[in-house]
Amino acid sequence: NFIIFSAEYHKDRTLQPLKEERFRDNVLGVDCSETSVKDSQWTNEEFFQNEVLFMVNGAPPGSVILFDDAMDMPFPGEMRTLINRMLRVGRHQGLNVMVILHSLRSATWSTQAHQSAKYLYLFPRSSKGKIIQYLNRDLGIPLGKARDHVRAFSQSGRVMVVRLHAPELLLGDQLCRLI
Questions:
Q1: Which residue has the higher pLDDT, 100 or 105?
Q2: How far apart are CA 96 and CA 90, in angstroms?
């Protein structure tokens, strides 16, 4: 089961395949845009309590909860607190948590994720400099080697997955490198 909270669930074309009939029983999407909250019967706080928190607390074990663009929702403080808590304790409830951030470093939005996440999905074709800095500063990879990794992964595919737990490694469509 997948529960998707998105600031643009109804508008995001990349989510369209998940809205197909065959996924209806396994994918539940909640549009948390300002328009959806305004058009609902709830205030911002009530929407968060009755539409978001209710769904998260009622999610069956094994569910995947995806937060997409949470910082753009009308209740960003509540979402950040919820995401941080879920990243720390969601596994105790048997829940998997995924967070989509559009920046490798998003200050308070990414701090807990960098501590708790097992994988980071990075896009080396569009964020080369930031990824090189991250590999160098945060993972301790020498600068030249970090550049080499990013160059190789950007030439061999679209994504570079950083596995943060032992063994630390980089994964791509055609490459796998221990770091």
A1: 100
A2: 7
Helix (H) or strand (E) holding 46: helix 44-47
3-state secondary structure of 31: strand
Per-position DSSP letters for 87-121, written without gaps between them:
HHHGGGGT-EEEEE-SSS--GGGTHHHHHH-SEEE
The structure's pTM equals 0.86
Are 72 and 16 in contact, with CB atoms under 8 Å apart?
Answer: no
| Dist. CA 43–CA 32, nearest whole Å | 12
Q: Which CA distances in Å does 162 have to 67, 109, 110, 133, 134? A: 19, 18, 15, 14, 11
**How far is it, in rounded angstroms, from Cα 170 to Cα 157?**
12
What is residue 107's predicted lDDT score, i.e. its pLDDT? 77
**158 closest CA partner among 125, 129, 136, 132:** 125
Provide the token pair at 137. Answer: 């500063």
Count Cβ atoms below 10 Å from residue 113 Cβ, excluding itself.
Answer: 17
